Amino acid sequence: MHQKIWQNCLSLLEKRVSKATYQTWFLPLEAHSMSENELQIKVKNQFTADWIQEHYQIILHQIISQVFGKNLKIKYIFSEDDNSPLTVPPMIEDSLFPEDFPENSDEFALSLNKKYTFSNFVVGSCNEFAYTASLKVAEFLTETNYNPLFIYGSSGLGKTHLLQAIGNYAASSPLPLKICFISSESFTNRFIDSIKNKTITDFNKYFRNVDLLLIDDIHFITKKERTQEEFFHTFNDLYNSGKQIVMTSDRAPIEIKDVDERLITRFQSGLVIDIQQPDLETRIAILKKKSEFYHLYMTDDIFLFLSNNFTSNVRELEGIITRLSAFHSLSGISLSLSLCKEILKDMIPKKSEVYSIEKIQTIVSNFFGLSEKQMIEKGRTNSIVVPRMIAMYLCREMSKETLTTIGLKFGGRDHSTVFNACDRIILLSSHDTELTDKLTHLRHLIEIS
Ligand code: ADP
Ligand code: MG
Predict the structure, then answer these.
(1) What atom of ligand 1 comes closest to residue 278's alpha carbon?
(2) C-beta atoms surrounding 83 within 10 Å
(3) Beta strand residue intervals within 79-191, DSSP E
């Protein structure tokens, strides 16, 4: 089974990295075995494992968690004898370093991810201003008055996406532009390394010679005084020579603590824009766009349900589409509203209502055409036992009563009987889709009654 799921991971990876990266690093990987909390991946040798870990660990881990639906540790095992000679694949990520960069400039490892573009960014009232300003900056580099452009907002709302889109747009320009996309954390680390390795001149030369500086999550620069000082000088040099700077942050400049006031003043001197949480229409548009990407067909009632229940950020919306798509491609089953609810059950914020045991018993017994008496009495035929276990399970989930109280209200049964019934339903529903559908339907009936 894990082999089949692994194929799904691979097809998601294929969409996230360049073709060359995919073919060189990911295609040869094999899912070897899987335990409760660990996935063993077969790689050629230690070198390959190290490389993947260093460059792609986050994305690999993210996709594995999404597709397998749980947090799995990755363990590499080697197919090649570790003493065999190493074959080093070529460096294939598109380097953004111009040719005349110092030899060791690779150490900065600056790169853009081609998947973030203006055309796949969904625009709504929450982000329209940020989108328009970013596009203007990308189109008219060095000619806008939006310098620096400072975009801020909560996590998962598309700041990095826009920053990357500016870089990708500029990179496709026929002009030989030097573009630098970097997080402020990386900037800081590189700076510290350059002090340690006595390469500060190269560091300065590099950063003060770019045409477009894109700094992600600038708020991480807080409290690092020497980095701030360095950044201040870089900033001034670029600004004075008319080079464009774009920054993102999770808060407005004024709210960034422990940063030199001179820097804050600089951050505010251009255009400061915020991105808000997406409204209902934008959430639906984003869900539609993401599901198109996965060739996932869903009806409007599903889109409405998803956008009503997942409201906080776009990253979350992406996560649910990935999960639904993984389910669909593995099972081949078309997605209905009730199935989506079941698949996403553990992700949907729980409603706070509590329902009485009596009400649940009535609804479940009506549903199965039984009397409430039959539900409680000692009958042992399957047609009564299963509905009774379902009723106990739903009472446990929706009444918030203890096992003992539930047992008492089911004809004075012991708490362990209720416990076993719940366990049995969980087990059965893991492979019986008809049962899962019934549970979803019953929950719905209880909620609306
Ligand atoms: P932030 O940097 O604000 O934390 P990201 O830019 O990393 O958020 O966005 C999180 C994910 O959501 C990314 O995969 C991004 O492509 C996607 N995303 C965010 N906003 C949009 C949007 N308006 N349209 C399409 N995708 C979006
Ligand atoms: Mg970001």
Answers:
(1) 23
(2) 6
(3) 149-152, 179-183
